[in-house]
Design goal:
With 433 residues, this protein is mostly beta strands. The protein has six helices and 32 strands. One of its GO terms (biological process) is proteolysis.
């Protein structure tokens, strides 16, 4: 009980200090936004945030289940407002740090004495770094009313993690780190909600185009898309499931996963149930199995036996279409000459808490054109005994609205917006500020 009270006091003192530092402004945004573009080479989703003093625009990759915003502090990080979090501070407690102590080399930005350190992850190269320095600095992000961008707001003391340059390997060109949107308290959604006192919710709408931006909105709706349509209406809701074990590249950490899991109960192809081992759909006592949503994978990954069953059913439903040789990373490919439109291919349903509640994946999100004559089922064989049985990847998220309500632990999803003649590139980025 004493430890719990101490923890709460530390957190309250931190939030009060942050709130007081920004409370001098009369402008309190109800929501904030990030524009997001798809990198054509890596297929990663990229945004830009202002950071440091003086402000510098920093390109970052979206990591949906990431624990923290981490930045390369080894390559040219210069700021007069950089402050490492000290051992025993509220910032370190909030970050649930792994270690605390002194820099083992010459102290510098990203390696300070009497500082605390966590374990940031690069999911794109499946690498973690057990020495990320918990740090504070200025962060600038744009407000929104849900329809247009508004004023930029500046946060003087935003908690993030400093890392060495090697952790940026595998990121898109010019990217300096990742934006963690996970379920823990120093990820971007929780910090923004606590600082500005708006609901701890966020919504992502990823564009399938590499030329037009999608959007992430922090806070509640509306989420308006041209021509003046609130796409938060008519969402389908399902519980978010807590995996009590760390996942991703850090399965050994003694804390719950920061990633987003949902309870898929079965899979249908063209309305017909696919025979699969249902045990794989549940999270076992070691944290294995289940279904998570991830921007760390460009395509959905299925455990081997699930992949075999789904692709077999899919091929049977497309028996009149010519199969062609596999094109990596895909194994199930067809001649596009026999498919007039992706709307003609069978839908794949991820059935959730009941048969009436399902995430429908239409052809626009299931089929990938790999050449003018070849189209492939955009699912990847994840092999035997992966940590997670189903990983819903970026391609299957595009042009779908996903709303994550953290206090209620629910996911709202739209399935494809294309049938409403809307894409995630329809947000009006014309500023009213």
């Amino acid at each position: 009980m004493a430890l719990t009270s101490y923890y709460l006091m530390l957190i309250c003192s931190l939030l009060l200090s942050i709130s007081s530092s920004i409370g001098q402004t009369s402008f309190q945004p109800k929501a904030l936004l990030l524009p997001v573009t798809k990198d054509s080479t890596t297929l990663q989703y990229i945004t830009q945030i202002g950071q440091r003093t003086p402000l510098v625009p920093i390109k970052l990759t979206i990591h949906l289940g990431g624990q923290t915003l981490w930045v390369d502090c080894e390559d040219g990080y210069v700021s007069s407002t950089y402050r490492p979090a000290r051992c025993g501070s509220a910032q370190c407690t909030l970050a649930k740090v792994n270690t605390c102590g002194d820099c083992i080399t010459t102290p510098r930005i990203g390696c300070s004495n009497n500082a605390c350190y966590n374990t940031p992850e690069n999911p794109f190269i499946k690498t973690l770094y057990d020495g990320g320095e918990i740090t504070e600095d200025v962060l600038s992000i744009q407000s929104t009313d849900g329809s247009n961008p508004g004023k930029f707001v500046k946060i003087p003391s935003f908690i993030f993690t400093c890392v060495p340059t090697f952790l940026t390997d595998g990121l898109a060109s010019g990217v300096k780190g990742t934006v963690g949107l996970g379920r823990n308290r120093i990820a971007l959604p929780s910090q923004l909600a606590e600082i500005f006192s708006f609901p701890r919710k966020f919504a992502i709408c990823l564009s399938s185009s590499t030329k037009s931006s999608g959007v992430i909105i922090f806070g509640d709706g509306p989420y308006m898309m041209l021509p003046n349509i609130d796409i938060s209406k008519n969402l389908i809701f399902t519980p978010l499931i807590t995996n009590t074990f760390g996942t991703g590249s850090v399965p050994f950490l003694n804390e719950s996963s920061s990633e987003y899991f949902i309870g898929v109960k079965s899979i249908r192809v063209n309305g017909k149930s696919v025979p699969i081992n249902k045990k794989l759909l549940s999270i076992d006592k070691r944290g294995n199995g289940g279904t998570k949503i991830s921007t760390g994978s460009p395509y959905t990954i299925l455990e081997s036996s699930i992949y075999d069953a789904v692709t077999k059913a899919f091929v049977q439903e497309l028996s009149n279409v010519t199969r062609v040789a596999a094109v990596a990373p895909f194994e199930t490919c067809f001649s596009s000459k026999n498919i007039g439109s992706t709307r003609a291919v069978p839908a794949i349903d991820l059935v959730l808490q009941s048969k009436q509640v399902y995430w429908r994946i239409f052809g626009s999100n299931s089929m990938v054109e790999v050449s003018p004559d070849v189209i492939c089922l955009g699912f990847v064989n994840g092999g035997i005994k992966p940590t997670t049985s189903i990983v819903i990847g970026g391609y299957q998220l595009e042009d779908n609205l996903l709303q994550f309500d953290l206090p209620r632990s629910t996911l709202g999803f739209s399935s494809s917006l294309l049938f409403r003649q809307i894409t995630c590139a329809n947000f009006n980025f014309t500023s009213k500020a």
